[in-house]
Write a structure and sequence with these properties.
Layout: H1 2-43, H2 56-67, E1 90-94, E2 97-101, H3 103-114, H4 130-161, H5 166-195, H6 204-225, H7 232-253, H8 255-271, H9 279-300, H10 304-323, H11 329-345, H12 364-372, H13 377-396, H14 404-421, H15 426-444, E3 451-452, E4 458-459, H16 478-498, H17 503-528, H18 535-559, H19 567-587, H20 591-606, H21 615-633, H22 651-669, H23 676-702, H24 714-737, H25 741-765, H26 768-771, H27 783-802, H28 808-835, H29 847-870, H30 874-898, H31 902-927
Antiparallel strand pairs: 1-2, 3-4
Helix pairs in contact: 1-4, 1-5, 2-3, 4-5, 4-6, 5-6, 6-7, 6-8, 7-8, 7-9, 8-9, 8-10, 9-10, 9-11, 10-11, 10-13, 11-13, 11-14, 13-14, 13-15, 14-15, 14-16, 15-17, 16-17, 16-18, 17-19, 18-19, 19-20, 19-21, 20-21, 20-22, 21-23, 22-23, 23-24, 23-25, 24-25, 24-27, 25-28, 27-28, 28-29, ...
Length: 942
Amino acid sequence: MLEILSLVAIGLALYTLNASRNSAQKLGEEVMRLKGEVEALKASGVALPSPEAEPIAETLETVREAATDERAPADFTSPWTAKSGEADAGRAIFGGETSAVPTEAVAASETAEEGAAAPAVTPAKPKESFESRIGARWAVWVGGIALALGGIFMVKYSIEAGLLSPAVRLSLAAAFGLVLMAAGEFVRRRTQPLIANAFQNAMIPGVLTAAGAITLFAVTYVSYEFYFYFGPVTAFVLLAAVSFATIGLSLLHGQALAGLGLLASMLTPALVATQEPSAWGLFGFLIVAWLATFAAARIRRWQVVPALANAGMALWSVLYLSQASTVDVVPALVALLVLALGHGLIWPGAVKAEDLPQPADAKSSDALDRLLAPPAVAVSLTGALAMTFPALVLASAVPTLAHADYAFVIITLALAVLGALRGWAVYAAILSGIAVLMGTASIAAVPGGIFLDGIGTLAPPTLEGTTPVAVVAGPLPVNLLLVLAVLYAAIGLAGVRLRSALPGFAAVWSVLAPAVPFAVLSISFFTFGNLSFDAKHGLLALVLGLVFFAAAEAFSREQGEEEGLFLPQWTLSAGGFAFLVLALHALTDGLVTTLGIILLGTIAVFATRLRRWPVLPWLMAGAAAVVAGRIAWEPTIVGAANLSKTPVFNQLLAGYGIPAVLLAVSAFELRRWPGERIRNLLQALASLFLLLTAAILVRHGMNGGVLDSSVPTLGEQATYTLLVIGASAIMMSLDLKSPSPVFRYGSMVVGGLSVLSVLSAHFIGLNPYFTGELLGKWPVLDLLLVGYLLPGIAYGGLAWYARGRRPMPYVIMLALSGVALVFAWVTLSVRRYWHGEGIADWKGFLQSETYTYSVVWLLLGVLLLAVGSKFDSKSIRLASAGLVLIAVVKVFLIDMANLEGILRALSFIGLGAVLIGIGLFYQKILSGKSGTGEKPELNAQA
């Protein structure tokens, strides 16, 4: 059955060849006839310019003049004559003889003139029919596969049947493969002009050639693997020759054949095994195959096959570096460097700037699409990935693999250079940064099963009772990482300069240039450096910071006074500032570092007097963020052991207070700055740092110079509450003098947060009734005064100050918070009077104590009513009514059940007298008399 299929496939191929030959012959005859007509027209003197040389209208005018010539015409048969059944429309002169000019030409000229002004409409490409797909495409590919399988199965059949010797069988198979390749070339020469454009991906010559190549490849491999006719070297050379010949023939037969040759070349090293494998031999062969593929791709401008070549190179590199028993880094490094050079010089090579047009009026989305989809994007992306993955494998092998660190650095820098020199290599630039970051992090991380010893080298861990196992490891490449940071910064700045004609690409490099070296230097410093003082990292960071500020100045001068966002100015300035901050961390410690960072931000703000860069004020915000992060990491600024216990005048005052002052000064300096957001942000940060300063100093003083060794008390919490209330009043005052949304909304946010704090801490969490905290020996001048009465009075004053300046609900909230705190002070003071400085709930209640609560609550209600009437405050009067209601409920529900004798009677008598008095008071002040000029109601304001 297999033999029949093979013969049928060969017959189909011969039939196709004969049919193609006949078609080509007919086509050639038609071409010769047309050529004769053209030569005759030229000989007659009629100009036939090409469409590219002259407009169509001029050409048509020339034809019309020839058609309307007065000289006697003569008939001239031509394939360009008019349609069947139509008369000749004009004549033309041909060297003494006359001939009819086709009617179609005259009609076409008239039609072209009428529609000259109409825009050209490109007709839609017709959809390929099902018949075309089946007959012209699928049949070709299936036939090619059948031919290849036929050759293989013939060899298999001859082996099974024992018809011929192995050498003869293989020779016949090889001859069959050569015949197929020759047939492919013969068919190509005879039929390609007819079918090349219509069926480019189903070319019969290419299929025949591919079938022959597969047959030769199979014959060579069988001769080596099963019959041992060839040694490894000979087999390798023959397989390589077949692969390269296939790649070379792909220039004639198309990209599919190139892919087949590439696949064969990538499989060749895997199929041929030797006792002593050579890395140089492996990667030397891969380099040659890769270069051959890219040379063919450059000539034909292919993308699929070179992308597959990149994938194959990456796969072989990763497998060798990660799986080989003995690894030599240099051959793989050379292969990857050749890959980088091949992309830069062969394909895509020197892509011109006009291949990436970026008009000034282009939308940002269009610009982004052009940036991320450059010419030959498949080739550039796969090439960058082919260098990135081996580089990461090498980084993960540091320091156990010799020279892996140097190879990692060289590969990533080569990728960066490619990204800087070529305008299409945006993915090379981006992936170079990613590779550097991930590789550096991998080097800094502890490899599996290995830990750092005390001298900066790697040592193997040992288990108790086992023998230590030696691990070959070199010193950690700290200096190499610093060199990597410097070189990448230089390449990045060069990329910004070289890609200035492509703003999007230049913006990418302006981000990568400072960000990647900063990350490398930071990882190196925090992993391998001396955190107290490290001159190496510190001085290098200082130099790089100054370099990036100088680069920002140079690029800004080139930009001039143009409007709009100039991204390199932002990114390079921010990068320079980040390096200076890192230098402070490396060269200083503790309080000096904190103050130095905020001072750098202040200098950046005052630098706006010299350079009106929008980025400069935002550097102060970044400095404040870094200081806040340092405070969150170490609230004591200098460490708990080094913190002075002197109240107020200690390191905390400088570490928290000076940043607050400098932030306020910076906000004031920017009072005329056109951007309001940064000024508002600095005002908010100054307020925040001021509150932090006061709060941290209170905690330090109330806990004996210790910040983290005791839980908060009611007195400490009350101090925080008073500070927040004061901050809200200060922000309100600043808003009245210099209106600002930060002060306006910030004062209300702070006030609202303080109310929540009071509800959670003063009334529940730190209430002495629940906690049992002692109030102090002195009545009135005790913890209740600080915890309840003073905050209550402060809330009352803040509510009075906010009347007419803040929304009414906010004012009412403050007033009710003050009343609640005063009520709590009165109530807890009554309990202190009966129980002493310990008022814990486990002591229960006395009858006289219960009666006192009723009396005090009623008196407090009357007092609040008087105060509310005095200050014309509806909210205070409503609070007084609430207290009276609470007293009424208590008398009827609690006093009636718990009090006995005279106390019960006095409770009700007193309640009745007070309620009657309150009623008379309201009748007097609310009814009003006519003509007195008094307000009919006193609840117009809260």
